[in-house]
Design goal:
814 residues; alpha/beta; five-stranded parallel beta sheet; five-stranded mixed beta sheet; 26 helices
Amino acid sequence: MPEQQQWTIAATEQPPEWFIEAVKQHTPASSGIYAAQLLWQRGIKEKSQLTAFINYKTYKPASPFEFGQEMHLAIARLQQADNAREKIAIWGDFDADGITATSVLWDGLGQFFKQNTQLIYYIPNRLKESHGLNNQGIDNLAKQGCKLIVTCDTGSTNIEEIIYAKQLNIDVIVTDHHTLPTERPPVAAIINPRYLPKEHQLFHLSGVAVAYKLVEALYQTLPNVEKHPLEDLLDLVAVGLIADLVQLSGDCRYLAQLGIQRLQTDFQQPAAARRRPGVGRLLELCQKSGDRPTDISFGLGPRINAVSRIQGDASFCVELLTSRDAKRCNELAEVTELANARRKSLQKDVQAQVAQKLTQLDLSTTSVIVLEDAQWPAGVLGLVAGQVAQETGRPTILLSTEGAGGDGGDGGDEEGISPLSSSSPPLARGSARSVNSVDLYQLVKDQAHLLHRFGGHPFAAGLSLLVENIPLFTAAINQQLRQSLGSTTLTPTVQADLTLTVADLGKELFLELKLLEPCGMGNPVPKLLIQNCWFENSWHRNQQDWQGKKVQYIKTEFDIRDDSSKSGFPGIWWGHYKDELPIGRCDCIAELDYNTFKKRYEIRLIAVRPNVNSTLNTRNGLNPSYPLTPLILDLRNQEHSARAKQQLSANSTQHSALIIEDCPTNWDDLRAWLRRCLTINRSASGLDNQQQLAIAWSKPNPQPPNQIWLTLVGIAKYLSRTNQLVTRVQLLEKIGISDQTLLVGIKALKDLGFTVKRQDRYLQITWHPSDNAENFADPAVARFLAAVREEQFQRQYFAEVPLSTIVAIASYDN
């Protein structure tokens, strides 16, 4: 179960009046105090710093030749290729940074080398090849006559592969931003900002920005060649920079600011006149307009990443981003959107399975979470690992042994470890994510002797290892982190930057905070603490994809209120049901956003907890003086019911505990049991006489919805054939579904030719043969299958929801 989050408030230092006035000049419609406070606490304390931070026109970007001799070597090798009419291959990567980097080189180098004849590109298959150069791909390029490979967003530590390419008379120019090799590889040039000092304005460039700098250098070296404006590439640079979560400072911030402006300008054109119709169509599908960094981080980036996660091969994404053929781009955008819908569904399924495995871990003795499963698709493990790391406050590594034998992974470059032979035992592959400033890459690297391949960043890594080494790896990496932490305790932490009221929210504050955009690592989106508030008009729904089909991804919408305002302010909470919102007054941490689709300002809820100092809701006579945590005993998922009852006996006093053994599907059932328990306790003379409510249901083990439908149809046919009657309770017990879902099933039976009549408390079912009864695509059957899936999701939720949530919600009526 996720641990209780620790909330912290950023240290506030009141900026001087002259600084506030300087900020106010950039946001005349507001006081500027909040933006000034944020900028000051983030180290912007000089007027020149402030001007350069806010107004990109005053910033002086670094020359591409700040990379020194390596950039000169790269340009010279490209000129040699031009003179000799050599064939060049761009070797990219399959994530959003790699895809946009490939697209920048494809468009940029394409001004000097003819595309598809002298210039081609190669994107590795995420599920078959993983990150980086590989010999099989190099062989493929050699057969096509390539004499030069230009990498982007990859290649720095592919020493053996670079040597192999050289043996085939292929030179390599590396453009990358990942881990440096211990010695310079035998390349024609290596352009990697990690060779620069950490304070250099180019140090934090992502792969796409490094690729852009190479093209910029070529433009400056060959100024007389007729070509499109270099600025036409900046929208792609912004997408890759923001999607890759690099620190947006120095040239990174400058390029992102320019790129977002280009992105928005192009989107505002009529569809037929857009320079990048594929990007425009993607923005339309995700209901964004391209004017916000979040349009990339929550819109474009996840969709580009989803293609390789689901399909493995993301090569067509380069065509999607660079083609001028609107019809073709529409087709590719829709394929991308479908991949993203599938990614959401897979991610949700894996999240539920990981949550169940977490219940079996003792987090008090776990420093690094390592979990594995044979059924997990490797493509979504990085996303789920990131969520688990955030919720638990611990570095998380998720491994898949699905089709064990591959050497790939997700989330980081797995370079630097020599491959094992083809006859080696099965491999697990997976992804790692970190939090709390723990250098995950170094942690993983220190266990290199147990790994097959690995690579990545301090906060994200990919790895593969022998399945038999997983227990040893888990023990070793936990011991290593425990020793380095000493007495430090890992806890999930969320930090608020400002304390505000609901009355402060709205356009004025939004425009003020927008001065900090684009936000990213080192300059995060401002987190707003709102205290002593409450929620109204909450509702949730499953998201729908662009074709109107249901996607099993929940979003709750609500209005937030406090004593500062007489009206509510709208908000959303992704991935949560409305019943998870606390009843009564609470505190929350949120981000302020603008919804371009609904054309409204709203908050995006990040964290919420009951307000311990507020008066709790006492409707329906529930007395808040009863301490509810000891009142509710959590015995879910116990191995044996006998053990559960034994524990009940040990914890019970004068009254026997009320036991709920059936997993509920809604909060009302829990509230009814709690009211019954509290009714008994009101007559008690003291707390020692409390009757406990034991939630003792087991984890559901549901049948597939299709099988449940076939079972219902089979029972109906049997009852018709034998002319027997059946009670509703008997049907419920036989099929294992709720009463509400059964009603949907009975309606489906009627739609497909069955007659269902009520006789007292019995049902009589007769059958008129129909070919549609087993047609799962029939609308009536589809509605039943959807109801079953939703019920199964709810049962899964109640099997895993934290006890703290049950206490907060089940205790009080809506």
